[in-house]
Amino acid sequence: MSPERRTPDMHSPSTTGLPPLAERMRPTTLERFVGQEHLLGKGKILHRLLGKGHFQSLILWGPPGCGKTTLAHLIAQKTDAHLISLSAVMTGTKEIREAAEEARRMWMRTRKKTWLFMDEIHRLNKAQQDVLLPHVEKGTFYLLGATTENPSFEVIRPLLSRCRVLTLKALDPSHLESILEQALCDQERGLGLLRAELSPEAQKILLEACGGDARVLLNLLEMAVLTTPPASDGVRRVAAPTVADVLERPPAHYDKSGEEHYNLISAFHKSLRGSDPDAALYWMARILAAGEDPLYVARRLLVAASEDVGLADPFALVQAVNAMQGYQVLGSPEGELLLAQAAVYVALAPKSNSVYTALKKARKVAESTGTEPVPLHLRNAPTQLLKELGYGRHYKYPHDYPEGWVVQTYLPPPLVHTVFYEPRTRGWEGKWRDYLEKRRQAVQKQERARPGHDEESS
Predict the structure, then answer these.
(1) Nearest in space to 57 (alpha carbons), one of 109, 134, 127
(2) What is the rounded distance in angstroms from the CA atom of residue 237 to the CA atom of residue 199?
(3) Is residue 333 located within the same domain as residue 264?
(4) In a shared domain, residues 282 and 343
(5) Domain range spanning residue 412?
(6) Residues 404-410: contacts with CB within 8 Å, 24+ apart?
(7) Whether pLDDT at 448 is above 90
(8) pLDDT tens, 170-227?
(9) DSSP annotation of 19
(10) What is the pTM of this model?
(11) How many CB atoms lie within 10 A of CB 17?
(12) Which class for 438: exposed (0-12), middle (13-18), buried (19 or more C-beta within 10 A)?
């Protein structure tokens, strides 16, 4: 007779091979699912789709740990459909074709529809997405994609147009507190048998450290509880120092090629444009902490100094260029101070996008008037023949005049009254505005006094 088998204690720190707490606490019904009320609340899109049993290919887009995978499984369960789960990391065209064949067999045998859950769908390359597309088009299976990256950047347009993108949000503190409480109390799947308690300080650290990610929260909680010995009364009282010991600094929410990269860079640039040095420094610190190349930040400063400050303060561009060059000499961390100095200067400088706007206008006009010939007086005449043809004739050399400027046109005749650059009244441009306006009026006055034909053609 074999010895009696002892059921392993799932809550023992020495137990190995069991799923982590985050996996054990995964909700098995929609009623237990926490968060995403904007999708699951009464009358909201998923509530309506699931209530009526409608099938539609979906892409769930949201940050890590917000419930994308869990929600996908619950959708399949709620619609009483067959579910095939794949991860884009481990999937090739062969696996996609096999999934399509499995879906066909399931329909022939049971008349059950199939969901294909593709985790991290953004990792599928174009060829793999092309293989996926016809099966989604024909309804061989319905796609449930999950991604942390903006689908409009990562999913091919034909496939994206056949899916409804649902945006999931990071869990807020009330959601996280609910999940934490469930994990501490649940004796079957959670840590309830361990009789663990968290001090308010320990709980605060956990909630702040997880960054809205329930998976990170539960994994940190499990480690903190399991490494806290029980007191004489059997209660494991988890204190703040214990949480601090097990806490690994979470990576900043940032992806150099993904949505959050563009979000943070956008916030940084708009803070510079909005003349808020505090916000600019904050977003810059976030970007650098996430591991971005500081020279990328320097390049953004160059853009802002030209696009948003421009000639209202030409020294903003000087600061940005010097900061970039100085960083290349010093490196981090000292060189980051130069970037901070330039960021504050650019933020505080008077703003003008007049050069940026002028260039856009000039490009547009240049596209439509690209065949206009260069006026003869502006052409170079390196040979006698060209001189005889009138090249350079009637050109007035500005340095020959007392003011270093003379009334003269430099645009093709049809465009002679066109204005691209319109200086603002702020900063340096304000000093040049009246000066430039007087010169333009002098040119216009001369043009009005000209005979009805061009001087060059006379």
Answers:
(1) 134
(2) 7
(3) yes
(4) yes
(5) 373-449
(6) 405/439, 407/439, 407/442, 407/443, 407/446, 408/377, 408/443, 409/375, 409/443, 409/446, 409/447, 410/375, 410/378
(7) no
(8) 888 888 888 888 888 888 888 888 888 888 888 888 887 777 788 888 888 888 888 8
(9) P
(10) 0.55
(11) 5
(12) exposed
